[in-house]
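Running this now, will post back.
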Amino acid sequence: MILKKIRICYLMKLKNQMIKNIIKKIFEIFLLKIHKNKKNLILINQYDWKPLKDGNEFIQLYYSGLKKSKQEWTDEFSKQLRFYSLMQLANKVLNNKEVFDFVECGCWRGHSSYLLSKLIKKNEKKINFHIFDSFEGLSVSTKDDDEYFNQSKEYQKNLIDHFKSSENFFKNDVLNEFDFIKVYKGWIPERFNEVESLKFSFIHIDLDLYKPTTDTLEFFYPKLVKGGIIVCDDYNSSQFPGAKNAWDKFFKTKNFDLFYEQPFGGCFLIK
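Update: finished.
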């Protein structure tokens, strides 16, 4: 009798999950996304966003980058919005009369690197794009990473492994068409000294954790030219609060022209 009850409960749970999956698929067909917070379910209609509906130039580039970096499985509405803003900001800088080098710290499989490289190439700017990454996953966390630091060692190890990538794939498959790329393999900030004498117009940070984000801000922000733009992909990430902690602490005493906190994650600053 007890086994029968357990079996019935299991089948009901399985049935409920199947119903949830079917509903989710129906929503996805119509480009509807369900976002759940502590109080409400929020329904987002992606068709309300004209660039996605029309498939404009940036959206087409976004999807070609997904395919090139073999990251189709990471596609989501919030990422579309963050990367769309990233491309807009980079394009703004590239339209300036004088443009200095670009830098990216944290590239993973190369989706954002590809987008930025395509824009540099299209605008025919004679600059270099410097990319720093360990290709060995995430750095070691600290207490300033808050909730992430308090996660189990197994949880953190799984994420470290998740973010490992191949330098060979990155250079020879994703970015093989570009001749202005300089890749620096190593932990942040081990190889920063190799660009000590340079100035930068655009900085993209996607390092997740407090310490490497702080190291990057301390080294590169003084080298960002007036009117240059710096972007932090992980700002306001609930999974990686250390990035926001590092950003807020660093810029508390700095002067800048504009700071914007993006609604679906990430932020940027114009110096």
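The chain is about 40% helix and 20% strand. More later if anyone needs it.
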